[in-house]
## 1
Amino acid sequence: MIFCCAVATAPLRAEPEHKAEMVSQLLFGEEVKQITLQDNWIKVKCLNDNYEGWVEKNSMIPFEEQSIDKKFKKHIASKLSSLINSQNAVIVSLLPGSEIYLDSENNALFNNHLCLFSGNTLSINDSKTIFNKTNLVSDAFQFLNTPYLWGGKSLFGADCSGFTQTIFKINGINIPRDANQQAELGKIIEFNKAEKGDVAFFKNNSGRVTHVGICLDNRMIIHCSIQVKIEKLDESGIWNEDQKKYSHQLAFIKRII
């Protein structure tokens, strides 16, 4: 059975209990496949990245894509947006990366009811949409100062790979959830040939990729560590100006697209 997230964001947990580790998040409209059910918890597999975890059933609604009128096309919210009812009251806030079905007049489907969408989206049905690294970087900037949250991938809180996954998603590119999975994509780029929009990966003392960020111009990087911030990047890693030391050791840089 397919469900979709019916709240702004829902924790995806390692076990079916509130105190369990949050391994990721679901954003509004993201679709999942039920694996099993336990009390008020559903173990699910996320359809966009195959990530698995437990989510509360009352934060989800059943979803049948074939029942949606063909005039409604799936969109990805690229900025903080809203669904509004006929009294102009906000029904739910949509974080960047949320998924919504819209018609040509910005009417939205929510739980089989019509409401109005207010915000900005990327249509994933539009074959004319062209990936643009300038847009990718601009979208990353809207996350500046977002606090670090293990398992997070939203403006309310994100971890390093959740941040990069969401930024690429709102630019029409689905990438895996974790940094070591993302590191398997694309082709390696020499440091002096890196461009904005390329993705830098960082390793621990054992050589395992544990951190990721998005390259900017002038040998800078935007990444999530304590918060989403911009720091200096060189061939050794990320230089923390406040602490006067490297915070992350560079493994390699890749061009995903």
Note: The helical segments are 133-141, 160-169, 179-182.
## 2
Amino acid sequence: MNFKKGDKVVVISGKCKKQQGVIREVLKESNKVVVEGINLVKKTVKPNGQNPGSIVEVEAPIHASNVMILDPKTNTRTRIEHTTDKNGKKVRITKKSKSVLD
């Protein structure tokens, strides 16, 4: 998967189309990502000894094919290229501006 925790992404399809956010969690087994403030769903919480029951909003996972990385230089969506730098370390490079992602 091309995504890492902390990457800035934009949603390209679905009900949250064109919204931007930062990846909070990557779920490699199901090929999904959780993005801060995007794809909010309501979840009921049962009451326990400390808290009364309530309805809270949580971020649901989005399939990785529905998000794209934001290019740090141009702030537009872009694809990712994998190459090695001069030290032999594998790095991710954006296709549009050829800038290195950390």
Note: The radius of gyration is 17 Å.
## 3
Amino acid sequence: MKSKFVLAQLSNVGDAEVNLAKAKEYMAKAFEEYHPDLIVFPEVFMSHFPVGTPKDVVIAAAQPVDGPFVTALREEAKRYGMWVICGMSEAVEDPDDPRKYNTTVVINSEGDLIATYRKTHLYDAFGYKESDTNKPGDKFFEPIDTPFGRIGLFVCYEVRFPEVARYQRSKGADIIIMPTAWAEGKLKSQQFHTLIDARAIENTVYMVACDLCGDGSLGESCVVDPMGVNIALAGENEQLLSAVIDTDRIEEVRKKLPAYKDRRPELYTI
């Protein structure tokens, strides 16, 4: 079975209304040009601020998952009959907790919000401290069945933890979606692609990584098949990136490369 996925590699700002307008614009373009089954937006696409922005400004921009940003995305998903996966800044329920969640929402083609995921491994690395403004989630994404395969999900920095992807595979994921806001820097492009390729190969899954671009983000969104073949790759600028996901390819690769089946977990504990 073949399905069309589109990755919306875009820049964004701290204003959710501005980013929502851009999301609507690119969903319309995606529908017109590709008629995709699913469109993926980057991590924290709803609102993302440059380093040094006051913490209270960042927190004030957060919304609940039933707020105006996600509600509008649900309407657009239903309008175009496409699934939507998008990163947002979710308000924490506790008014005494001065943080937010880095959340990803999954919306089906009927406009139903069918899953949310709060990033569990926060990016406290390379001189950045995501935990200053974000509260970590307390559980991994549970893969879901869709018309185009069983989908798993994690966010950005979590690709550096093979256990996260392995959990998705252990729960039957065929395709892993990775919204990201990968920062530019020395060796960052090499590490980005090496890690994504490794997660695809070791788990024999499609990896679908949609990155922010501009303002210090890398771009270079990509789709990698279960054998580690890069079937779609973006540059550094805004664009729609299209890829065909073929579930027959997954079965074909797993017959050749039964690495997941051949594990011997009784020999180790993590």
Note: The longest helix spans residues 16-34.
## 4
Amino acid sequence: MPVEAAPNQKEARAIGTHLEALGRLLAGIAPWLELESSATETPQETTLRTRYRTWALAGITSALDPSSPDAMHFGQSSQTLVDSSFLALAILRAPNQLLKKLDPTTQHRLAQALITQRQVQPPFNNWLLFAALNEALLFKLGQPWDRMRVDYALRELQSWYLGDGTYGDGPHFHWDFYNSFVIHPYLLQLMDTLADQSPSWSALRPAIEQRAQRQAAIQEHLIAPDGTYPAIGRSITYRCGAFHLLADAARRHLLPEAITSPQVRGALAAVMHRTLDPVGTFTPEGWLQIGLAGHQPSLGETYISTGSLYLCSAAWLPLGLPPDDPFWSHPPQPWTSQTIWSGKDIPADHSQDV
């Protein structure tokens, strides 16, 4: 994989960029890897999924094998805390196909790799969730895990809640897509994995889910009739990954009653076309390039590199739903902005505090 990065950053980003690509890509396709074939699925999709399951396991195994030329760098930069965590998210989203099918040696190496990440002190923002999710995977691996890292992250995020489905990324609000890139999807996964390990964590679950539902509604409203959306805030080069939460809410059947699955299917498809179809999105060899609508390297912050861009796969989470799910089987419907800007009369949106 080539390494595209900001000027003078290529060498530094090369340490973790391959782990970024692996963890982020798998985090998006993990629910599809986990999905069992059904009578309504085409034989071609069943064959394709089997092939990708094999590749995913081989990739994780090689990434953790110190003798492999594909061995990846855990704990060698602060960025590897982020991307070991995206790998953990992927494995937790596909426990039967990824976690349970790793051989014992690779499972042990995975645990050790996550433990090395504890040497990275996360800044006082969404990074607390990266440290917490690594501990969640250690729990699933049957390894000693640090409850304090989890509890600290959950408590701080509750103190940063600002209302109307929105958390601060730290004590202050930042107008970007980090509520979707990281905050809500990670909180939902922590609830899935660890809520039952503490009554105080379990008590947070209803509010965490209701807040995620409201933020998903806001995300659906942000998608314009043509599939564009505001290019606001940092990490905009994650492209359609900006709608990580909306895709996750659809996968979880967590959408609010006023927003249907076919609306979200159409909206996400439009966003994917706007962010992945433009000329320059990929190199001639097929690797993603920095940008939002084509190749726009100036949009990339100093921490952005080729591997970072594969967070766009988060928009594909509904692939984990079977073909007969309403998300796929119901007829197309216009999403909210299409309905409003076509002149139709619909109820107004209102804020929600939980």
Note: The first strand starts at residue 161 and ends at 163.
